[in-house]
Design goal:
The complex is a heterodimer of chains A (284) and B (262). Chain A is mainly α and 284 residues long. Chain A is built from 11 helices and no strands. Chain A starts with a helix and ends in a 6-residue tail after the last helix. The chains are: A mainly alpha (284), B mainly alpha (262).
Chain lengths: 284, 262
């Protein structure tokens, strides 16, 4: 019996309904842990306070503030993208792993529900929760560091949307890797998160990176998303964008946002088929 | 047994060292970019030393010790709860304080090794001299601070027993501690009430003691022995207070739902 074949053309309403049910399941699980819910808010505020106060030791009390660009714009806009990158890398792969550990991943594959909707439902959760956290924390951060420049909102939102699409694609690819490497995924996610934190210069300008690190940063598409987004939102101050002309960066971010989700999903399906053939979907 | 376990995960041991260095590099790189040519001068005016790299590295190294203490103790309790062995421990003829002390000793060894590696590797990567000032005195501040620190983890253990959601609480605590102990900035910039709260927290005295011994930024009470005396006072009070709160919570839970429930 070809179950996949039967589900190739389900009605749109049925697909949306299944998708919504999956999103609701994720939201219900989140709501069942109120301490977690409140603590993650508090945690973000504290992270913001620690880094901004630490950075402020270099320009606090100086007439005219910072001498190297607008620290508020650099930090806050970088922070927005970092929140999504960190959560995506963790959440999608971690969710798949969690389903594996609790023994429900194999059951999900026996159900006739769309596998794509299953994966995307985890993104919806991140968009709602991380989006809320990011907006609140950014306001707090801007109030602590100083005036936040807000320019070119239209282009900024465009860059952000495609950056997030690309980041979610990375999340799918990482979920694929999780199916292969299992428990080691947590260490790899940690390592990637911290590596990208420095290489993509989320909290400081690229000019602060040592000379030997900059060429590596230029090889990572995420670096261009960070540079393009914050340069656009800051109104292209002198020296920004730092990695390439804005036209090139916008094209690159668009391609990244269009190709990466597709590529990530293809990789995920491959990993999933590999696991199903080997019978290792429920092994963890 | 725990040391043997962790030796099976070399990747985790590497991350123990990499993560704090990455944390410290964030304000260092942001500061270098935003402070420009006057970065050292402005930093010295705000903190008492122009050596901002060493200042941040000391902060992140002490933070490694503090963070590990809370993580290891909280996760040990939570793990025993989840695997169903916590109740069994209560039935064993061994005093629980020795079981907790074993976990604390493992945590101490791991965190001291990690913090030393963070400081040495961080100094090497970020090109500062690691051995400057009074190294012995700095180490003394760390050693004296360890006992009140682990005493405080008992308070935290009581919260874990009661609330149970260890992950969220440990994460929140980790950043709360980072904030209060002034990992990347002096607590002098806090408003009076927050500063008072920070000074009630032993790791704040550890961090400032180590920084003053190595970088000469100035002790809270002007002399090293006065600051050390405060840590000694914490050493006497914190473990007893922690144990008292932990015992009260434990008794209350055993009378009600029992320690096996999570």
């Amino acid at each position: 019996m070809n179950l996949e074949g039967q589900n190739l053309s389900p009605s749109l309403i049925a697909s949306l309904s299944a998708f919504w049910a999956m999103v609701r399941k994720e939201l219900i699980i989140m709501a069942r842990y109120p301490v977690n819910f409140v603590a993650s808010f508090g945690q973000v505020f504290l992270i913001v306070a620690v880094f901004t106060l630490g950075g402020s030791m270099f320009y606090r009390g100086v007439e005219g503030g910072s001498s190297g660009g607008n620290p508020s714009g650099v930090v806050v806009y970088g922070f927005m993208l970092y929140m999504f990158m960190g959560d995506t890398l963790w959440a999608i792969g971690y969710n798949v792993r969690h389903e594996q550990v609790q023994g429900t991943l194999e059951q999900l594959y026996l159900s006739p529900a769309s596998k794509f909707a299953n994966l995307v439902s985890r993104v919806a959760n991140i968009l709602i929760w991380t989006g809320l956290l990011t907006i609140t924390a950014s306001i707090l951060m801007a109030s602590m560091i100083g005036d936040l420049p807000v320019e070119n909102i239209g282009l900024g939102l465009y860059v952000m949307a495609f950056s997030l699409a690309g980041t979610f694609g990375l999340g799918f690819a990482f979920a694929a890797l999780t199916l292969y490497i299992k428990e080691t995924a947590q260490t790899v996610a940690n390592f990637l998160q911290f590596g990208l934190l420095v290489l993509c210069a989320y909290f400081f300008p690229f000019s602060a990176l040592p000379d030997f690190v900059l060429p590596i940063s230029k090889l990572i598409p995420l670096s261009y998303t960070v540079d393009a987004f914050r340069s656009t939102m800051m109104g292209f101050p002198p020296g920004f964008p730092e990695l390439a002309p804005i036209g090139f960066e916008v094209v690159l971010v668009t391609v990244f946002g269009l190709v990466m989700p597709y590529l990530g999903y293809v990789l995920y399906r491959r990993a999933e088929n590999h696991a199903r053939r080997r019978g290792s979907l429920s092994a963890y | 047994m725990r040391l043997l376990n962790i030796s099976r995960y070399p990747g985790q041991l590497v991350m123990d060292v990499v993560t704090p260095i990455v944390f410290a590099s964030m304000p260092i790189l942001l500061g270098r970019a935003s402070g420009g040519a006057n970065a050292e001068e402005v930093f010295a005016a705000n903190t008492g030393t122009p050596n901002y790299v060493a200042y941040m590295l000391i902060g992140t190294s002490v933070f490694t010790i503090v963070s590990f203490a809370f993580w290891h103790m909280a996760y040990w309790l939570r793990w025993e709860q989840e695997t169903g062995t916590l109740e069994v421990l209560y039935l064993a003829p061994t005093n629980r304080i020795w079981v907790a002390a074993g976990t604390a000793l493992y945590s101490c060894l791991r965190s001291l090794l990690a913090a030393t590696a963070v400081y040495l590797f961080g100094s090497l990567i970020l090109q500062v001299t690691p051995f400057q000032g009074q190294v012995g005195l700095a180490f003394l501040f760390i050693l004296v601070g360890l006992i009140p620190l682990y005493g405080m983890t008992l308070l935290y253990g009581a919260v874990i027993l009661k609330v149970k959601e260890a992950n969220a609480l440990v994460n929140l605590m980790q950043w709360g501690v980072t904030f209060l102990m002034g990992v990347f900035f002096p607590v002098a910039i806090f408003p009076p009430l927050l500063k008072f709260l920070a000074l009630l927290f032993p790791p704040t005295w550890m961090t400032n003691g180590v920084r003053s011994a190595l970088l000469g930024i100035g002790y809270f009470f002007g002399e090293w022995y006065l600051d050390l005396a405060v840590l000694w006072a914490f050493l006497l009070v914190a473990p007893l207070f922690g144990y008292w709160v932990f015992s009260k919570t434990e008794t209350s839970i055993r009378r009600n739902e029992g320690v096996g429930q999570y």
